[in-house]
Amino acid sequence: MDVLTQNFSLYGKGFLGTVELTVYASLLALALGILMAAFRVAPVASLRAFGTAWVTVLRNTPLTLLFFAVMLGLPRFGLVLPFTVFAVIALGCYTSAFICEAVRAGINTVPVGQGEAARSLGMTFDQTLSAVVLPQAFRSVIPPIGSTLIALAKNSAIAGSFSVTELLGTYKPLNERGYSIIWSFVWIAAGYLIITLAISALFSLLERHWGVQR
């Protein structure tokens, strides 16, 4: 317990940093993922091509490489932001590709007649998607989105290698202070467990209220 009690503020900063990264990156991933899913089912060929390219590139790019591209590439174009913001962008964009595929799979579970009925009433594609299709698709994609955001929380550990305050990065100063690396990682793992269990509990609650009964 000495590792935790004597370094509680250090663990606290790392824990809050990981929570912050997870929350902001999750919001960005959900927004971009839903947008890209809409692009992938849009009647406009250019939008479908853009959505497909987004998913293909990001799903097949190592996350560490994407961090390097964002952290080192964007400043070369004059975009200078705090490293935490860059980490949110990298995590959010990467995860959005997986959110997109989960949402698209959910859209495919909605009967085609639902969209046809909406269009027969004079609704546009945007109106049909937002008012008819997505609300029904949401019910079936709660579990996979929850799993994807849990993976995002764990992937946030990469940000510590880029001078971003997060939970895994606390092992470096603890190691320098001479603490047991085993116990340092035990408490780091406990912090990640708290975060992932909280996400799991949230999505279990959402699934009980709105999920598809099987």
UniProtKB/TrEMBL annotation:
PROSITE patterns: ABC_TM1 (PS50928). Its main location: membrane. Residues 15-203 form the ABC transmembrane type-1 domain. Pfam families: BPD_transp_1. GO terms for biological process: amino acid transport. It is found in: Cell membrane. Gene3D superfamilies: MetI-like. It is a multi-pass membrane protein. GO terms for cellular component: ATP-binding cassette (ABC) transporter complex. The chain crosses the membrane at residues 21-41, 53-72, 79-99, 181-206. Keywords: Amino-acid transport, Cell membrane, Membrane, Transmembrane, Transmembrane helix, Transport. GO terms for molecular function: transmembrane transporter activity. It comes from the Bacteria. Belongs to the binding-protein-dependent transport system permease family. HisMQ subfamily. This is Amino acid ABC transporter permease. It comes from Streptomyces violaceusniger.
